[in-house]
Design a protein that fits this description.
Order of helices and strands: EEEEHEEEEEHEEHEHHHHH
CATH class of the largest domain: Mainly Beta
GO molecular function: medium-chain fatty acid-CoA ligase activity
Keywords: Ligase, Phosphopantetheine, Phosphoprotein
Organism: marine sediment metagenome
CATH superfamily of the largest domain: Luciferase, Domain 3
InterPro entries: ACP-like_sf, AMP-bd_C_sf, ANL_N_sf, PP-bd_ACP, Ppantetheine_attach_site
GO biological process, one term: fatty acid metabolic process
Distance between the termini: 28 Å
Largest sheet: 5 strands, antiparallel
Radius of gyration: 23 Å
Length: 319
C-alpha cells in the first residue's frame, strides 16, 4: 500500500524467472548500503496519517524503505533475497537469509513445517531452527541432514521442536515469527508501556481494563489506527474481527502477543505438495474461471484511451 499500485512487472516470456521483473516507468529503485531495496516515485505515499515518527522511520528524502533485501542486474531485473527483518546478522559478520535455509528445511523428510530465526549470541545472532515434525522423526538427524546441504555460515546452530499443533499464522497463513520468538525467549511486551499507541486517540489515561469501544469511545477509524500502530511497533498481526465492544486494552495486548483464544488448525501436509498446487491451478483455470464466464461478461469501456496512455508511457521512456 505504501507504493500503490505496483513497483515492478514480471513477464514470464521476457524476464529472468528468478526475479520479480523490471521496474515500471516513473519510478526509481536503488539498493541501500545494507542491501535493502529503496523505492522513489510519484506512487510512493507521502507518509502515515498523523504518525510522523513512523513516517520518518520508513521515508527519507522521498526514498521508501521497502523492508526487502535484494539486488539488481545489468538488465534491470530486481531480485528479492528476503525480508530485512528476517535477516540474521551472525557474530562473524555474515548476513544469513532465513528463507534460504527454510527452503532446504521444508524439503526434508519428516518436517511438516519449519522456520528459521535469529537468537541473541555474542556479537550477533545465531541461526536457530524451529521444527514442526511428523511423528517418529529425530530432530537431530533432520538438522544434520539440512546442515549438510548448507554453506558453513548458514548452518543451524540450535533447534527447538514446536509442541503445538501448528505455528501461529496470519490470515494469509504466514508464520508469525515474532510470536514464535516470544515463546522461545519467554519475552512479552505491554502495549501500555508505549504511550504513543493511543496518543491523539484517547484523552486522559488508559488502564488495562479499559474497554476499547465502550469505555475509550474509539470509533472504527481510531481502532484501525491503534491496531496499525501496534502491528508496526511490535511486528505482530491482529485480526480485527477478534475485537468487539467489550474488548479491553489487556485483551488487545494478548492478541498482539498471540495469546488470544483463536483455535489453531494445522495445515495438512498434502495441501503444500506440488501435485495439489497443480490440481488447484488447473481446477481454478478450467472450471471455476470458465464457469464464472458463463454467467458474467466483462464489458470494458475506454479502450480508445489505451493508445493515448501508451504514447504517454513511451514519451516518458524517451525523456
Amino acid at each position: 500500500t505504501e507504493t500503490a499500485p505496483m513497483v515492478t512487472m514480471f513477464n514470464p516470456f521476457k524476464h529472468d524467472m528468478r526475479s520479480v521483473g523490471k521496474i515500471l516507468p516513473g519510478q526509481e529503485v536503488r539498493i541501500g548500503p545494507d542491501g535493502e531495496i529503496l523505492v522513489k516515485g510519484s506512487n510512493v505515499m507521502a507518509g502515515y496519517y498523523n504518525d510522523p515518527e513512523s513516517t520518518a522511520e520508513i521515508l527519507k528524502d522521498g526514498w521508501l524503505k521497502t523492508g526487502d533485501v535484494g539486488s539488481t542486474d545489468s538488465e534491470g531485473h530486481i531480485f528479492i533475497k528476503g525480508r530485512k527483518k528476517d535477516m540474521i546478522p551472525t557474530s562473524d559478520g555474515r548476513n544469513v537469509y532465513a528463507e534460504d535455509i527454510e527452503k532446504v528445511l521444508n524439503k526434508t523428510r519428516g518436517v511438516r513445517d519449519g522456520i528459521v530465526v535469529g537468537l541473541p549470541d555474542a556479537g550477533g545472532e545465531s541461526v536457530h531452527g524451529v521444527l514442526l515434525l511428523e511423528p517418529g522423526f529425530d530432530p537431530e538427524k533432520i538438522v544434520s541432514a539440512v546442515n549438510s546441504k548448507l554453506l558453513p555460515f548458514q548452518r543451524i546452530r540450535g533447534y527447538s521442536v514446536w509442541k503445538e499443533a501448528d505455528f501461529p499464522r496470519t490470515s494469509t497463513l504466514k508464520v508469525r515469527k515474532t510470536e514464535v520468538l516470544k515463546k522461545l525467549t519467554g519475552t512479552r511486551k505491554n502495549i501500555l508501556d508505549d504511550g504513543n499507541v493511543f496518543d491523539g486517540l484517547v484523552p486522559g489515561s488508559v488502564s488495562p481494563d479499559s474497554k476499547l469501544i465502550n469505555d475509550l469511545g474509539l470509533d472504527s477509524l481510531d481502532l484501525a489506527e491503534a491496531v496499525s500502530r501496534i502491528e508496526r511497533k511490535y511486528g505482530s498481526s491482529i485480526d480485527e474481527i477478534s475485537i468487539g465492544p467489550d474488548t479491553t486494552v489487556k485483551d488487545l495486548e494478548n492478541l498482539a502477543a498471540g495469546r488470544g483464544s483463536t483455535r489453531v488448525v494445522p495445515m495438512p501436509r498434502w495441501a503444500k505438495r506440488k501435485i495439489t498446487k497443480s490440481f488447484r491451478a488447473v481446477f481454478t483455470g478450467l472450471l471455476v474461471i470458465q464457469g464464472f464466464r458463463l454467467f458474467y461478461r466483462i464489458r470494458p469501456h475506454g479502450l480508445k484511451n489505451i493508445d493515448k496512455s501508451m504514447k504517454n508511457i513511451n514519451k516518458l521512456k524517451l525523456d
